[in-house]
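User: C-alpha cells for both sequences below?

Assistant:
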Amino acid sequence: MDIVIIEDERLTAIDLEQTIKSVVPDCNIKAILNSVKVAIDYFKNEAMPDLIFSDIQLGDGLSFDIFKTIKITSPVVFCTAYDEYALEAFKTNSIDYILKPFSEDSVLEAINKYRQMKQTFSNKEYDYDNVINALLQKKDSTSSSILVHYKDKILPVRMNSIALFYIEVEIVSLLTIDGKRYHVTKTLDELSKIAGDSFFRTNRQSLVNKNAIADVSHYFSGKLSVNLNVAYDEKILVSRAKRTAFLEWLEA
C-alpha cells in the first residue's frame, strides 16, 4: 500500500509515519509533503498513492486547495484537531478522519475502513466545497484546538481555554486561562488566521482572547493597556492606530 502524508509540522508528520508503519508494516510512505504548494507540484508529476493522510490547516492554506487544483483520485483520511462539528460534512462525502492526537487504534481503524470501502473509491469525485464551508463556518468554534509539543507528548489545547498567544525571545508560546504555558510551532500570523474572531492581534507580540480580558485602561500617546484575568507579567498595549478596531471588537 502506497501512502502519502500531507502535514506541515515535522514532528507530527514523523509521528504519523511511525504510527502508520507500526500498524501496517508492509506499507510504503511515498512522500511527506509540508505545504499546499509542495503537494500540488508533487501530484502534478507523481502517480496517485493508494491512500492519503492529510492535515487540514497547512502553513500556506487549507489542504482542500490541493484537491481543488489537482484532481485527486485517492481516498483521503484527514488528520485534524477540529472537533465533531465537521462530522456530517465528512460523512456526506464518504471521507474518513482522525482527530489529533491520533493513536495506533484510530489510524488502524481508518486504514481498515479504506480496505473495506476500496472498491467504492474507484473514479469517485468528492465535493470538497461542503467540507470547506463547514470548516470555515465554524473556524472560531470553541471546540477547535491547537496542538502543542510537551516533553514526549503532543497535546491538543482548546482555543477557548487559551488566554493569549505571545512572543518571548523570538519564541511563540501560549498561556491558558488556568495559567499553563506551552511553546507553539506556528507563527502569530498563522495563528491569527486560525484562532477565530474571539482573538485580536493587539500588537506584534501578542494575540489575545476576548474572554481573558479583565479590563482596558488608557495609556500614553492614545494607546490602550489590556489587563488580563490571568497572571501575565508583560504589558499588553494596543496602538493608537488599532484602538478603534480593538474597542469595536471588544464591544461586539
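Moving on to the next sequence.
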Amino acid sequence: MTKTTRTTRGISILGSTGSIGTSALDLIDRLNAMRAGRFRVAGLTAGRNADRLIEQVKRFEPSIACIASEDLARRVRHGIGSVSTRIVSGPDGLTEVATLPEADLVLAAIVGAAGLEPTCAAVERGKTVALANKEALVMAGDLMISAARRSGSLLLPVDSEHNALHQCLRGEKIEEVRRLVLTASGGPFHRKPEIDLSAVTPEEALAHPTWVMGRKISIDSATLMNKALEVIEARWLYDLPGSRISVIVHPQSTIHSMVEFVDGSFICQLGATDMRHPIQYALTWPERCESPLEPVNLAALKEMSFMEPDLERFPCLGFGWRALESGGTMPAVLNAANEVAVEAFLAGRIKFVDIPRIIDNVMAAHRPAAASSLKVILQADAWAREAAVEAAAPSTAAGALTRPGGNAPCPTR
C-alpha cells in the first residue's frame, strides 16, 4: 500500500518525556528550522513526568497530550495555562494519541510492555509507526506483523541496530541474505573479565561506555539482554529465522549492524553514536535529509574491533534464541521476567548476576501457549511478572522457582 503524506507531517510521540522522545522533539525543532513547517507535533504522551510534559505542550502546542493518571492530568491542565491542547489520561488516552487522525507517523518510544497496546492500536489503524519500543515486537511480533499486512501499516525501526539493517537492505533482495549481524557494544563489563559481576553496583552497570540511554536499557546493555530482545525483533522485522541472525561485539559502536549476503559480501551501516540519527531516518523516510548532527570523522576512527560475545558470563543473550525456539508466549515471558529483574536490581534487592538466574527460572517454569491474541500475551506477561517477583524473593534466591500462588493465567510445568 502506498503511503500519502501531507506537506506538513503530523507526528504523535508515545513516550515524549523519555530519552527517545526528547531527542525526537529536539530533532523536529532543528529540522523545522532547516525546512520550515516540515513537521507538526500532533500528540504527546508521558508516564508521570508532568513538569516535562507541561514544557513540551507549551513549546509544541499539540492537539492532544496524555499522562498516566487523572490527578497528573489536572496538574498538566493547570500548568499549561491558556494553551488549547486537550489533556487526557490513562490507557484510553494513550490509544487516542496513537490513533489520532492527523498523525501521519507515530513514534512508539514507551519503554517496556506498557507500550504494547497503543503501538498495536496504531498499527491496526494503518499508521506509519517508527518503532523505538522493541518490546512490542518481542511480545507480539506475529500479531503486529499480521496486523500491519492487513492495515497497510509501515514499521520503521528506530533501534540503532535495526535501523542500520533497514538501511543496509534498501534495494536488496531478502532471499539473497545469508544472515543479519547485530553489533553489540558489550556494555561496561564485556571486555573486563577481571570484574566480579556478583559485586557490580547499579551505578557501575548504568555507566555505558558509548551510548547515553535510559536506566532500563542501560542495564539490558550491561547484561546483553538488549541483544536477546533485538534478535527476536529482527526475526519479525525481516522475516528470517533466529538461526540466520547473529550478534558480534563491537565495542566502538561505530558500525551499527551489518548484513552478510550469500556471495560472502557484507554491507555495513556506519554512523555517529547518537540516537538522533536513526530517529531522523525514520522521521524523514523515504527521503534522506541534511542532518543537524556532526558527521563522523573517519580519520579519527583509530580502531574498529570485533569479538564473539561471552555467553557464559552473559547468558541473557542466549535467552533470545531460546525464546524464539520455544515460540508462542515465551518471548513475552522473557521480556516480563527481565523487566522485573532489572527493576529489582536497580532497587538494590538483588545482585547483577541474579538477573539471568531469575529469567532462566521463569522461562523454565513456563509452558508456552500460542500467542493468538493480545489477551493471551498479556496474561503470559502478568504470570511471568508474578513468577519473577517470587524468583527474586530471598526465600527463592538460591533455589528453583515454584508455582506462584493463586490462579496463574498460563499453565506451568
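User: Anything stand out in the second?

Assistant: The chain is about 45% helix and 15% strand.
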